[in-house]
Amino acid sequence: MSTEQIPHVAEVGWAKHLEVHPLSPLAASEIVRAADFIRNLYPSSIKLQFKAVTLEEPEKARLVPYLDAEHGGRRLPSIDRKAFVSYYIRNTDKFHEAVINLSHGRVESNVRLGPNVHGPGDAEEILLVERIALEDADVKAEIAKLHLPDGTAIVSDPWIYGSDGVNDDRRMYQNFLYMRDPNDPSNLNSNHYAFPLPISPVVDAVDLKVSRIDFLPTGLDHSTRPAQPVEIPPANEYTPEHQNLRTDLKPLNVIQPEGASFKVIKAGETGEIVRWQKWEFRIGYNLREGMVIYDVRYDGRSLFYRLSLSDMNIPYADPRHPFHKKAAFDLGDAGAGVMANNLKLGCDCLGSIHYLNAVLSNDQGEPLPMENVVCIHEQDAGIGWKHTNYRTGHAAVVRNRELVVQSIITVANYEYIMAFMFNQAGELTYEVRATGIISTQPIDDGLEVPWGTVVHPGVLAVHHQHIFSLRIDPAIDGHSNRLVYEEAHPMPRSDFNPHGVGYTVQETLVSQSGGLDTKEDSNRVFKIQNTSVRNPINGKPVAYKLHLPPFQKMLADPDSFHFKRAEFADHNLYAVKYRDGELYAGGKYTNQSRGGDGVRAWAHRNENITDTDLVLYAQFGLQHSTRIEDFPVMPCEIIKVSLKPANFFEKNPALDVPPSNQEFNRSTLISEQHRQPSVEARVNSKSEVCCTSKL
Amino acid sequence: MSTEQIPHVAEVGWAKHLEVHPLSPLAASEIVRAADFIRNLYPSSIKLQFKAVTLEEPEKARLVPYLDAEHGGRRLPSIDRKAFVSYYIRNTDKFHEAVINLSHGRVESNVRLGPNVHGPGDAEEILLVERIALEDADVKAEIAKLHLPDGTAIVSDPWIYGSDGVNDDRRMYQNFLYMRDPNDPSNLNSNHYAFPLPISPVVDAVDLKVSRIDFLPTGLDHSTRPAQPVEIPPANEYTPEHQNLRTDLKPLNVIQPEGASFKVIKAGETGEIVRWQKWEFRIGYNLREGMVIYDVRYDGRSLFYRLSLSDMNIPYADPRHPFHKKAAFDLGDAGAGVMANNLKLGCDCLGSIHYLNAVLSNDQGEPLPMENVVCIHEQDAGIGWKHTNYRTGHAAVVRNRELVVQSIITVANYEYIMAFMFNQAGELTYEVRATGIISTQPIDDGLEVPWGTVVHPGVLAVHHQHIFSLRIDPAIDGHSNRLVYEEAHPMPRSDFNPHGVGYTVQETLVSQSGGLDTKEDSNRVFKIQNTSVRNPINGKPVAYKLHLPPFQKMLADPDSFHFKRAEFADHNLYAVKYRDGELYAGGKYTNQSRGGDGVRAWAHRNENITDTDLVLYAQFGLQHSTRIEDFPVMPCEIIKVSLKPANFFEKNPALDVPPSNQEFNRSTLISEQHRQPSVEARVNSKSEVCCTSKL
Question: From B27's CA, which of A103, B69, B550, B654 has a CA 20 to 30 Å away?
Fold first, then answer.
């Protein structure tokens, strides 16, 4: 670190206080500076491969007073601006992580990691590995044996190698090969997943060579065949150009004639504050998690310190080599932020849309601009509440408006549509839609296997699990919270319960860190409580409850690498005591990980989590037993996790939502005279009384 | 039956063939005729109280050939038109049911029911009972002891009496009393549920007198107090006029400039056929079930013979007299059809709406016109499927359009919003939204009880369960279907599964009628299969799978009346062999029922249900542990049951949905320059390429 940097540092120090919020993602200039600090540690002859240059979030002990001062309108304390950098010495296995103090212009730490700690894939590396696999002479020789038509395009999907403990200390990629439709060679968007090939080259990520060529089992057992001529099955395209499209779908437009109800306030160069219907929160964005929601408040009251998708794991059912290693950690192995789609108006959202851009980093440590990676819009979610007084016929009804903060990622064959949704009743929902193309492999004709479904001639879609972990760092009216679960139990028969119909709802305190499960038979519901703040009407501690959908836990056995690595996959919920730097349920580095570094390990510290700063990891997912309807592209499967107030407010917080009526909603009456519902709007003249009905 | 009716009958016979479909609900003229047939059985001095005059649906053995001929364009067989009538000899307990053959103008059957078989309440009777309770001198004397301010309006909510086996052979009503806000006497829509009174008169439904006055326990035990002066708590109103409404919610309109995509075809005087996006089905409507969906087909292939909400039960947690009898069967005790709201444009739906009317019957056996009881509209349900080719940046995305067939019922304090939803991926969802005002009772100040929550000073909202039963009469590619369930199980470790990661998905046949449950740990999913029709690609039997949400089963013990009466409430699913006339999971007459007449009893016949005409009753619901946010009116709780194809099609059936793009969706870009998102539409000029993005 050279002295002439000091004025520069001071300048940045000032700049920070003027505009940079401690939670604002790194700006392009900060990414450049951080990478320079690392480069300057080495002679110029040493080339680096950057995996991440991202914000090192402030310690909570410093940030909480800052946020309190911010909301209290007091003078803001100074918080150093820091960058986290992970990188390889290029073409080696020397993986490092470092922290740069940008405010004081120094490298605070820089350590080499490992052994068996591997960085994630990056876009440049993945494209390079594809090329290496396809240009390898031995691979070409094997492909030649398939006797494919001249000009057939081969496609390689590099897969993270996974871990099985067998010669996998080096970082590798397992490449699955496909071809584009040989009968339509010019179609660059041909669905190659309809043409899986039985050859699978393994590429070493250090010396960047094909280290092994696997042949895939295509029968009922582990046996494989040498490459031999393959039959060409029919194509199975998903693109609209290849369909006879429906002609009877009429447009449906969402119009907000007076604009949207939300405000997006740019917080300096990066990061935004969103205000909508008494909600206020901050949006961050990083390479690994994508969207991060910070400092969530409703009507000025604190609810959550930080919300993000922490991890996901997708283990597959086929036990045969090399498929037994398929267990993707899409966030830790690649990154939700860097895989985000550039969202387009009219395609990914409907209505009045606001888009957010982000800036990440590439393998050179250069800023990587990401346009339209988050979209924000309102949507109508049906009736919010209604009651009709049957004696007077007076009906009161409001609709439920939602604010959607959405991002979409593409992970090779697959897509995830992720959204944080806020509503007017103080409810917050995290939604995942699973879509895209299911992972395929070749299977011999006429075979059926219990670990997958044939979705196209010669094509097997193996069953798999999607297991997600949503990280919830609560701050319900403050940072001292506790976790309880509520259960409903029958009353025993007694003089008090002579007819055997009574039941009670009881709370149980979760005093220690650990893994917990829902229980349908007792309707177990988890609640985050603040016992120091009581509901003024009924005296109960203010709380938010967590609605977790059912899901089948990790099917791989507890001694398997799948199970050890996916440290969150065995319980609906993990509860731990907060520690700075612990963000990822599956561990900080999931690529070929061996486990022991994630939330299961943290929970085993058996720390007291009563009335303290606790953090929850909420798991949800789906056991995807494949069906032919999931091919060539699957209809969305939707999963939701919800957080709802429980004695946090004094009454229904959506009580003050303006009533739903025709002046406001401008609906159209479809004329009953027409067999085909007509276009002409017949605005109800009786809109004044439109919410009156008689039983 | 008199001879001069014969020509009239023949005429009706012809009329039927010309326009009346066997599934069309009774027309007004048919209701009049059917009631006349019954009246003519008695001297004019005998007054009748009609409970139902509704369509007696044809035997399936006759209707199936009719529907086949109808869809095959062949000559239609003749099916007699019949009416079902249930009635009391007025002011007696003499309850009858009869079947009238309208085609041949004769009474086919007319039998007196009972003992302990009671008809449901009807609107006229309920209003009468309210008056009787409030005008009773003894009740007035007790109310006087409360020392309420002059002019305080008392409100009586008559409750179905329930059964506990204690002196309840006669049909009775338990009236719960409330007052409107004494400080605002002119407010007819005051939320009286904020002012529960401790006096509860019981009205005998036969002699129409107050037979008993109960005093409600307001403490921690069974003890009650004589009426004494009460304190007046503050009001807690839900109506918009009493709120400081939010001012920052901007309008959101749904516009279909070219009209809606669905067709509604009137099928004669009553009943409709709906066609939308390859779906075709028939809508019926009756007093008990409300909406009924018949003969559901997709792309010409048969899926379901009949779908309806079969029953619901809401047992409460308070074991104390008289609350221990609160266990409402809203369909069987009153009727979803007759309690339906008159839906208003802009209030209950958003967009381009088509309304359906219905005609039911009143207690005089006269036609009761029901306007706008069903609304039909399309809605956007977000992205339907998407894939981005990361190599070319080409993205294909379609939105998921849904057709919603919705009805809303008000049951005194409570509302249910019910909807059948169809989508473009061949999926059918039944949704219930629970809203309205939770049932309240008085509680002494400062008390907490484990069977409810204080939601307002002096007001207890008791915990309760909502348990619904959806009747599914499948016809998956025909009427010979079987029920299987699919489960995912780990493979044992072996040479075949050396790493312990493999798992299999297996099917188990349900060969006999019975009650079944889901199983989260094995991801048990039920499927309706037709083994005689195989998927042409993978040879699997065509099937639809049933997605059931978790819910806590009936908490009352198996010896309790609650449990015996709610014959569906103890399993996620009941599967039985079809029999004509078996439609209601809780039995045909639920009012003060004793059990033994519903789906549990039918299941105990242990009939073979393999490859035959089976019927499913799918249960779902919620354990409603009350929270203060549910008062004075609760935000919707949403529950869904879905039916999805499983190897029924050859690929994703939504593949041919036109792509989502800006020309079609006309979304609006909110200018980033504006802090407050701007209104001006900036239609994307690059809409041609709007679905192209680069990873």
Answer: B69
The overall average pLDDT reported for chain B is 93
What's the gap in Å between the CA of B275 and the closest CA on chain A? Answer: 10
Taking a C-beta distance cutoff of 8 angstroms, is the pair B263, A250 a contact?
Answer: no
Place of tokens 């479909």: B21
Residues 260-279 of B with CB under 8 A from A: 260-265, 277-278
> Distance (Å) from the C-alpha of residue A395 to the closest C-alpha of chain B?
9
- Give chain A's length: 695
Using the Cβ of B362 and the Cβ atoms of chain A, whether some distance falls under 8 Å is answered with no
Taking the C-alpha atoms of residue B418 and residue B429, their distance in angstroms, rounded to an integer, is: 11
Q: What angle do CA A212, A215, A216 make, to 5 degrees?
A: 130
Give the one of B252, B324, B520 whose C-beta lies nearest to A378's C-beta.
Answer: B252
pTM for the model: 0.95
B149 touches chain A (CB under 8 A): no
Q: What is the CA radius of gyration of chain B?
A: 28
Q: Which residues of B are catalytic?
A: 330, 414
Does A521 touch chain B if contact means CB atoms closer than 8 Å?
Answer: yes
Catalytic: A330? Answer: yes
Cα gap A650→A501, rounded to integer Å:
30
The verdict on a CB contact (< 8 Å) between B501 and A315 is yes
Q: Nearest Cβ partner of A505 from B246, B463, B663?
A: B463
The shortest C-alpha distance from A30 to chain B (Å) reads 23
- Whether A627 sits inside 8 A of B646 (CB atoms) is yes
Rounded to whole angstroms, how far apart are CA atoms A677 and A682? 12
- Here the contacts of B93-98 (C-beta below 8 Å, separation 24 or greater) are B93/B170, B93/B171, B93/B206, B95/B51, B95/B119, B98/B37, B98/B38
Closest C-alpha among A516, A584, A545 to residue A336? A584
> What are the start-end ranges of the E strands in B90-141?
95-101, 106-112
ipTM of predicted assembly, 2 dp: 0.94
- Residues 568-597 on A with a CB inside 8 Å of B are none
- Which pair of structure tokens corresponds to residue A429? 């929902």
Strands B210-215 and A210-215 turn out to be unpaired
**CA–CA gap between residue A612 and residue A511 (Å, rounded):** 10
Answer whether A238 touches B (CB < 8 Å): yes
Among B392, B455, B623, the residue with its CB nearest the CB of A188 is B392
Length of chain B: 695
Model pLDDT for residues B184-209, shown as the tens digit of each residue: 989 999 999 999 999 999 999 999 99
Query: Could you write out the DSSP letters of every residue in A541-583?
Result: EEEEEEE----PPP-S-TTSHHHHH-TTTT-SEEEEE--TT--
Residue among A330, A363, A597, A613 flagged as catalytic: A330
d(CA A435, CA A419): 14
Q: Which of B602, B607, B597, B516 lies closest to B564 in space, CA to CA?
A: B597
pLDDT in tens, B644-679: 999 999 999 999 999 999 999 999 999 643 333 333
- Number of A/B CB contacts below 8 angstroms equals 623
DSSP A670: P
CB A81 within 8 A of CB A20: yes
What does the pLDDT read at residue A45?
A: 97
Residues B567, B597: Cα–Cα separation, whole Å: 8
Q: What percent of chain A has pLDDT over 90?
A: 92
pLDDT for A19: 63
Contact status of A522 with chain B (Cβ, < 8 Å): yes
Q: Please give the pLDDT value at position A684.
A: 34
| Residue linked to tokens 């049957």 | A390
Cβ contact B155:B229 at 8 Å: no
Query: Which tokens belong to B267?
Result: 């099928």
Alpha carbon B355 to its chain centroid, in Å, reads: 18
First to last CA, chain B: 79
Using an 8 Å CB-CB cutoff, list chain B residues near A555.
488-490, 503
Distance from CA of A535 to the nearest CA of B (A): 9
Contact B381, B676 (CB under 8 A): no
